[in-house]
Amino acid sequence: MGTQRRAALLHPRNRHQGRYDFAALIAVEPRLQAFLIRNPYGKHSIDFANPTAVRVFNAALLRQLYGIKHWQIPEGYLCPPVPGRADYIHSLADLIAQDAGGKLPRGAGFTMHDVGTGANCIYPLLGHHDYGWRFIASDIDSQALACATQTLKSNALEDVIELRLQQDKTAYFKGVLHPGERLLGTLCNPPFHASAMEARSGSARKWRNLGKQAPERKLPELNFGGKSNELWCKGGELTFVRNMIKESKGYAQQVLWFTSLVSKSAHIHLLQRTLQQVGAVEIQVVKMAQGQKQSRFLAWTFHTPEQRKRWLIQEAANK
């Protein structure tokens, strides 16, 4: 059984290098066999236009490369592309390491906050496996957290990943972070779109390539799924991240680095302006690339370089 080359230019520490070994993936997740197809180049692939195939493929990747034996999400919830999510984790580790002479932050002495973890809980799973970080993972959707709870219980991860329900749908950190908690950083995959129509339009663009694999098939609206709160919100990502920035000021002394993915490069300078208004000490735009796809996350801190160095030394000593 053949392999398939995956996107180039992944982070050097990303486990998803080279080609997908479908024989190995099927060995750990036999359900994947049913979704195996030949792409236009005659190579083995899976039907990425099929949401069920994508979910099973993710389960196989997580089991083969991260030892996650049980992972599943309900139909309709966002099923993230794992290689790209891993790049965010590794690039964030590099950002933090800049203040520690290049030494990567590893171990349970460091805690991260995943804002909007979803049913997939992907950032905590990857971040804990590769760096040993503890996580607070919050979401406004109780059903999503119930699913994530099952994943954590099935893999004995409840002690290192804590799920918290955000009861205020307009808040990010309020009501979730407890007084006195110190976090190495925050991550967020914001709802990129401003409406359901915009989300469908964005998905339609993907079908220009995916549809070529099986042009006769009726394609779903969203191959990676996603509930409304996962994909769109009033004002889209610009409003979402801007409001997060404003709220982050009140948690400046509890968090070393705040970060969020930003899908549209045109939004960066507008968000940087907001960050300047709230008094961010340092702002970084970290670029990532997965093949032809370009992505980025915005990072900001209210701490000087010297303060950040002292923070890391103190947290490392608490491990």
Structure description:
The protein has 319 residues and is of the alpha/beta class. The protein has one domain (77-317): Rossmann fold (3-Layer(aba) Sandwich). 37% of the residues lie in helices and 18% in strands. The protein has helices at residues 22-28, 51-66, 82-97, 122-131, 142-154, 196-210, 228-231, 236-248, 268-278, 305-317, and strands at residues 3-5, 19-21, 36-38, 44-46, 111-115, 134-139, 161-165, 183-188, 255-261, 282-290, 293-301. The strands form 3 sheets. Strands 7-6-5-8-9-11-10 form a 7-stranded mixed sheet, sandwiched between helices. Strands 1-2 form a two-stranded antiparallel ribbon. Helix 5 links the parallel strand 6 (134-139) and strand 7 (161-165). Helix 1 (22-28) packs across helix 2. The longest helix is centred in the first third of the chain and has 16 residues, at 51-66. It is globular. Belongs to the methyltransferase superfamily. METTL16/RlmF family. InterPro entries: METTL16/RlmF, rRNA_lsu_MeTfrase_F, SAM-dependent_MTases_sf. Specifically methylates the adenine in position 1618 of 23S rRNA.
Q: What would you say about this model in short?
A:
It is an enzyme of class 2 (transferase). This protein has 319 residues and is α/β, with parallel strands linked by helices.
CATH superfamily: Vaccinia Virus protein VP39
| CATH structural class | Alpha Beta
Q: Averaged pLDDT, please? A: 87
By CATH, the topology is Rossmann fold
| Distinct helical segment count | 10
Q: Tell me the total number of β-strands.
A: 11
User: Biggest sheet: strands side by side, in what order?
Assistant: 7-6-5-8-9-11-10
What are the low-pLDDT stretches, counting only 5+ consecutive residues below 50? 2-7, 202-224
CATH-derived architecture: 3-Layer(aba) Sandwich
Helix content: 25-40%
Radius of gyration: 19 Å
Distance between the termini: 45 Å
Q: Could you give the order of the helices and strands?
A: EEHEEHHEHEHEEHHHEHEEH
Helical/strand content category: alpha/beta
